[in-house]
Amino acid sequence: xxxxxxxxxxxxxxxTTIFPTRAGPARVVxxxxxxxxxxxxxxxxxxxxxxxxxxxxxxxxLVRPPGRVSAxxxxxxxxxxxxxxxxxxxxxxGRDIAITxxxxxxxxxxxxxxxxxxxxxxxxxxxxxSQEEARAAAIEMMRLVGIPAAxxxxxxxxxxxxxxxxxxIMIATALACRPRLLIADEPTTxxxxxxxxxxxxxxxxxxxxxxxxxxxxxxDLGVVVEQADRIMVMYAGQIVEEGACRAxxxxxxxxxxxxxxxxxxxxxxxxxxxHPIRGQAPLPGPMPAQCRFFDRCEQASEACRIEVPLRxxxxxxxxxxxxxxxGSHG
Length: 330
Ligand SMILES: Nc1ncnc2c1ncn2[C@@H]1O[C@H](COP(=O)(O)OP(=O)(O)OP(=O)(O)O)[C@@H](O)[C@H]1O
Ligand code: SF4
Ligand SMILES: [Mg+2]
What we know:
This protein is α/β, with parallel strands linked by helices. It has 2 domains: 1-85 and 183-330, Rossmann fold (3-Layer(aba) Sandwich), CATH 3.40.50.300; 97-178, 3-Layer(aba) Sandwich (Rossmann fold), CATH 3.40.50. The chain has 11 helices and 13 strands. Strands 7-8-9-3-10-11-13-12 form an 8-stranded mixed β-sheet, sandwiched between helices. Helix 4 (114-124) packs across helix 5 (131-144), helix 4 (114-124) runs parallel beside helix 7 (163-176) and helix 5 (131-144) crosses helix 7 (163-176). The longest helix has 18 residues, at 193-210. The two termini are 22 Å apart. It binds adenosine-5'-triphosphate, iron/sulfur cluster and magnesium ion (MG). Iron/sulfur cluster (SF4) binds next to loops.
């Protein structure tokens, strides 16, 4: 999809987000570095609480105090996000980078009609020149995401739609500005299977047509397998594995990734028995200086009682496990 010489659309280095907890500061995003190339889809997976949403909310400047965000580097389309003021950051948010939140009800403004929400973003970001043009584009977007009788429903309020419809309205709002990067946080969880497929197809189509890049955050590895070029697996605030989607799915390097794959019923095409990962992810708070997956890992040994770094091992893949050998996996 992209040439090897193009710089990535988004490059993030050393992103860390800390929330205070009773037990002490929790690094819910801990030194996370990754990139998204032009036109590609990056799948982000991990259990609930692993830091997927907060990673991207942090990049967009949407984490509120007492949460604290820091990073060594954050570049989007050649612009240094760390050097931008709040106003400039807001201009990028919505226009160049759009996010669809997990919870459509809180993401949409209950006091504004759907028309107002969609047209306001378009006018604010210069994606429509007049109210009429914005309304026409809003109807088109709503039709695209599969809202029946879109023209008649434009002046309804969010609570007048079902959960699934609200999810689609949020996606329409995000796409209305034709962003260069769409961050889709669990875009299909609230939708039934047929609509899930339609929404994913719509996102894939826009990706092809507009060369839009997509970050797809999801619990559903089946969705990732179909859509993503690369995959990033998060556990307890850290990236534990990253690489080309096919390669990772076919031959997981990290025991946690392997555990996720084994516990996914939706990967029925791989025809294997379902084994949930034993134990629970650690609660947010200070972590001991050892592999964070230690207590749940069937391959854990005393040698894992160190801060395990994320290491490259083969074909541009990285993983955070002491058992990796150069040239293994793939
Ligand atoms: N405002 C907050 N204050 C304190 N802790 C928070 C806050 N928001 C999130 N967290 C914690 O940060 C961690 C990461 O949360 P995040 O929402 O990124 O997880 P996630 O991977 O997106 O999970 P899910 O799959 O359930 O959406 C969680 O442990 C969560 O409890
Ligand atoms: S470092 Fe050790 S405990 Fe951690 S994932 Fe690898 S084998 Fe398991
Ligand atoms: Mg989330």
